Amino acid sequence: MRQPTVILVTGYARAGKDTFAQAVLDLVPGARKVAFADELKNAGNLFLERLNLHGKADLRTDADKVRFREFLVAGGRMARALHKDVFADLAATTARNLLLAGRVVVIPDWRYRNELEAIQTYCAPYRVITVRLYRSDTGPANEEEAASMALIEDVCRIDHSATFRSGETGLIRDLAMTVVSSIPNVPGA
After folding, report:
1. In what order do the strands lie in the sheet with 5-10?
2. Which site from 72, 90, 93, 162 is most exposed, i.e. has the minimal number of CB atoms within 10 Å?
3. Domain 5-181 sits in CATH 3.40.50.300
Protein backbone atom coordinates (compact mmCIF):
# COMPACT_ATOMS: atom_id res chain seq x y z
CA MET A 1 0.00 0.00 0.00
CA ARG A 2 1.41 3.39 -1.05
CA GLN A 3 1.50 6.42 1.22
CA PRO A 4 -1.34 8.86 0.56
CA THR A 5 -0.09 11.22 -2.16
CA VAL A 6 -1.54 13.59 -4.75
CA ILE A 7 -0.27 13.31 -8.32
CA LEU A 8 -1.06 16.45 -10.35
CA VAL A 9 -0.81 16.05 -14.13
CA THR A 10 -0.62 18.91 -16.61
CA GLY A 11 -0.33 19.09 -20.38
CA TYR A 12 -2.29 20.21 -23.41
CA ALA A 13 -5.38 18.37 -24.58
CA ARG A 14 -4.58 14.91 -25.99
CA ALA A 15 -1.13 14.84 -24.36
CA GLY A 16 -1.95 11.59 -22.55
CA LYS A 17 -3.09 12.86 -19.16
CA ASP A 18 -6.06 10.50 -18.87
CA THR A 19 -3.95 7.58 -20.12
CA PHE A 20 -1.39 8.42 -17.43
CA ALA A 21 -4.13 8.68 -14.77
CA GLN A 22 -5.58 5.31 -15.78
CA ALA A 23 -2.12 3.76 -15.55
CA VAL A 24 -1.77 5.08 -11.99
CA LEU A 25 -5.20 3.68 -11.11
CA ASP A 26 -4.16 0.32 -12.57
CA LEU A 27 -0.87 0.31 -10.62
CA VAL A 28 -2.14 1.49 -7.22
CA PRO A 29 -4.99 -0.49 -5.66
CA GLY A 30 -7.52 1.92 -4.16
CA ALA A 31 -6.16 5.00 -5.96
CA ARG A 32 -8.79 7.52 -7.01
CA LYS A 33 -9.07 10.01 -9.86
CA VAL A 34 -10.31 13.52 -9.11
CA ALA A 35 -10.59 16.30 -11.67
CA PHE A 36 -10.84 20.05 -11.20
CA ALA A 37 -13.57 19.98 -13.87
CA ASP A 38 -15.69 17.30 -12.11
CA GLU A 39 -17.97 19.80 -10.40
CA LEU A 40 -18.35 21.87 -13.58
CA LYS A 41 -19.52 18.77 -15.47
CA ASN A 42 -21.85 17.82 -12.61
CA ALA A 43 -23.29 21.35 -12.58
CA GLY A 44 -23.76 21.21 -16.36
CA ASN A 45 -25.66 17.95 -16.00
CA LEU A 46 -27.87 19.54 -13.32
CA PHE A 47 -28.52 22.40 -15.75
CA LEU A 48 -29.64 19.88 -18.39
CA GLU A 49 -31.81 18.10 -15.85
CA ARG A 50 -33.45 21.38 -14.78
CA LEU A 51 -34.36 22.03 -18.43
CA ASN A 52 -35.80 18.50 -18.73
CA LEU A 53 -32.95 17.59 -21.08
CA HIS A 54 -31.46 14.84 -18.91
CA GLY A 55 -30.62 11.79 -20.95
CA LYS A 56 -29.93 13.93 -24.03
CA ALA A 57 -26.30 14.46 -23.01
CA ASP A 58 -23.89 13.59 -20.20
CA LEU A 59 -21.12 16.14 -19.80
CA ARG A 60 -18.94 13.54 -18.07
CA THR A 61 -18.58 11.51 -21.28
CA ASP A 62 -15.76 12.22 -23.72
CA ALA A 63 -18.13 12.64 -26.66
CA ASP A 64 -20.34 15.20 -24.92
CA LYS A 65 -17.35 17.03 -23.40
CA VAL A 66 -16.13 17.59 -26.95
CA ARG A 67 -19.60 18.33 -28.32
CA PHE A 68 -20.36 20.94 -25.64
CA ARG A 69 -16.84 22.22 -24.97
CA GLU A 70 -17.82 25.86 -25.52
CA PHE A 71 -20.58 25.53 -22.88
CA LEU A 72 -18.13 24.03 -20.38
CA VAL A 73 -15.47 26.66 -21.12
CA ALA A 74 -18.00 29.49 -20.72
CA GLY A 75 -19.43 27.97 -17.54
CA GLY A 76 -15.95 27.55 -16.10
CA ARG A 77 -15.03 31.15 -16.92
CA MET A 78 -18.24 32.42 -15.33
CA ALA A 79 -17.70 30.43 -12.14
CA ARG A 80 -14.04 31.48 -11.86
CA ALA A 81 -15.05 35.12 -12.43
CA LEU A 82 -17.31 34.84 -9.38
CA HIS A 83 -14.75 32.93 -7.29
CA LYS A 84 -11.39 32.27 -8.92
CA ASP A 85 -10.64 29.26 -6.73
CA VAL A 86 -14.05 27.56 -6.87
CA PHE A 87 -12.93 24.46 -8.79
CA ALA A 88 -9.54 24.33 -7.09
CA ASP A 89 -11.16 24.46 -3.63
CA LEU A 90 -13.75 21.79 -4.46
CA ALA A 91 -11.21 19.36 -5.94
CA ALA A 92 -8.72 20.01 -3.14
CA THR A 93 -11.38 19.24 -0.53
CA THR A 94 -12.23 15.98 -2.29
CA ALA A 95 -8.53 15.10 -2.58
CA ARG A 96 -7.92 15.82 1.12
CA ASN A 97 -10.79 13.54 2.13
CA LEU A 98 -9.36 10.75 -0.02
CA LEU A 99 -5.88 11.29 1.43
CA LEU A 100 -7.32 11.06 4.94
CA ALA A 101 -8.83 7.72 3.89
CA GLY A 102 -5.34 6.53 2.90
CA ARG A 103 -5.69 6.89 -0.88
CA VAL A 104 -3.35 7.96 -3.65
CA VAL A 105 -5.11 10.64 -5.71
CA VAL A 106 -4.37 11.43 -9.35
CA ILE A 107 -5.66 14.70 -10.82
CA PRO A 108 -5.17 14.72 -14.62
CA ASP A 109 -6.47 18.18 -15.48
CA TRP A 110 -4.13 20.65 -13.73
CA ARG A 111 -4.33 23.85 -15.78
CA TYR A 112 -3.83 26.79 -13.40
CA ARG A 113 -1.27 27.84 -10.79
CA ASN A 114 -3.99 28.38 -8.17
CA GLU A 115 -4.98 24.72 -8.49
CA LEU A 116 -1.51 23.65 -7.33
CA GLU A 117 -1.66 26.19 -4.51
CA ALA A 118 -5.07 24.90 -3.35
CA ILE A 119 -3.85 21.30 -3.41
CA GLN A 120 -0.72 22.22 -1.45
CA THR A 121 -2.78 24.16 1.11
CA TYR A 122 -5.68 21.76 1.61
CA CYS A 123 -3.59 18.61 1.36
CA ALA A 124 -0.66 19.55 3.60
CA PRO A 125 1.29 17.72 4.95
CA TYR A 126 0.73 15.06 2.30
CA ARG A 127 3.14 14.80 -0.62
CA VAL A 128 2.22 16.38 -3.98
CA ILE A 129 3.96 15.09 -7.11
CA THR A 130 3.72 17.15 -10.30
CA VAL A 131 3.87 15.66 -13.80
CA ARG A 132 4.04 17.50 -17.14
CA LEU A 133 3.20 15.58 -20.34
CA TYR A 134 4.10 16.86 -23.80
CA ARG A 135 2.92 15.33 -27.03
CA SER A 136 4.80 16.51 -30.08
CA ASP A 137 1.68 16.98 -32.23
CA THR A 138 -0.42 18.92 -29.70
CA GLY A 139 -0.56 22.52 -28.60
CA PRO A 140 -2.79 24.88 -26.67
CA ALA A 141 -6.51 24.81 -27.45
CA ASN A 142 -6.73 28.60 -27.07
CA GLU A 143 -4.80 31.65 -25.82
CA GLU A 144 -6.05 31.22 -22.25
CA GLU A 145 -4.67 27.67 -22.11
CA ALA A 146 -1.36 28.80 -23.62
CA ALA A 147 -1.00 31.54 -21.00
CA SER A 148 -1.95 29.35 -18.04
CA MET A 149 0.35 26.52 -19.13
CA ALA A 150 3.23 28.96 -19.68
CA LEU A 151 2.74 30.27 -16.14
CA ILE A 152 2.80 26.74 -14.74
CA GLU A 153 6.04 26.02 -16.59
CA ASP A 154 7.60 29.30 -15.45
CA VAL A 155 6.74 29.26 -11.75
CA CYS A 156 5.78 25.73 -10.67
CA ARG A 157 8.20 22.95 -9.82
CA ILE A 158 7.62 19.96 -12.10
CA ASP A 159 8.81 16.66 -10.62
CA HIS A 160 8.46 14.52 -13.75
CA SER A 161 8.25 15.61 -17.37
CA ALA A 162 8.16 13.59 -20.57
CA THR A 163 7.53 14.05 -24.27
CA PHE A 164 5.58 11.51 -26.30
CA ARG A 165 4.30 11.01 -29.80
CA SER A 166 0.76 10.00 -30.62
CA GLY A 167 0.11 6.36 -29.77
CA GLU A 168 3.03 5.91 -27.36
CA THR A 169 0.80 4.76 -24.51
CA GLY A 170 3.42 2.26 -23.37
CA LEU A 171 5.84 5.08 -22.63
CA ILE A 172 3.14 6.96 -20.72
CA ARG A 173 2.50 3.83 -18.66
CA ASP A 174 6.25 3.52 -18.03
CA LEU A 175 6.29 7.09 -16.70
CA ALA A 176 3.31 6.27 -14.45
CA MET A 177 5.26 3.29 -13.10
CA THR A 178 8.26 5.54 -12.39
CA VAL A 179 6.08 8.06 -10.56
CA VAL A 180 4.26 5.39 -8.55
CA SER A 181 7.61 3.77 -7.66
CA SER A 182 8.70 7.09 -6.13
CA ILE A 183 5.84 6.91 -3.60
CA PRO A 184 6.96 5.04 -0.48
CA ASN A 185 4.93 2.16 0.86
CA VAL A 186 3.08 2.62 4.13
CA PRO A 187 5.29 1.07 6.85
CA GLY A 188 3.92 -2.24 8.07
CA ALA A 189 1.24 -2.44 5.37
Report:
1. 32-33, 105-107, 5-10, 127-135, 160-164
2. 93
3. yes
